[in-house]
Amino acid sequence: MPQPNWKVNVGMAKESTWGTAVTPATIFLSCPAPVFSEKQTPVWDRGLRGIRSGAQGMIFADGHSELDLSNMPWYGDDSGNLLMALMGTDTITGAAKTGTIGAVSIGATSVTYTPGTGGASVTGDIFKIDAGLPTQEIVVPTSIAANVWTVPASGPNSFKFAHTAAAPAVSLFTHTMTVLNSANPPSYTFQKYDALIATARTLAGVYLEEVTLKFASPGILTVDAKGRGKMGTNVTAPTAVFSTEVFNVPWQATFTVAGVANARVVDFTVSLKAPVDQIFGMAATQSPTAAVPDQLTVEGSFSVVPDDYTEYNYYLNNTQPSILLALDNGATRTTLQMSKVGITEETLQHDKNYSMIAGNYEAIANSTDAGTGNAPLKATLNNLKAVAY
Question: Is the whole model's pTM more than 0.70, yes or no?
Answer without folding.
Answer: yes
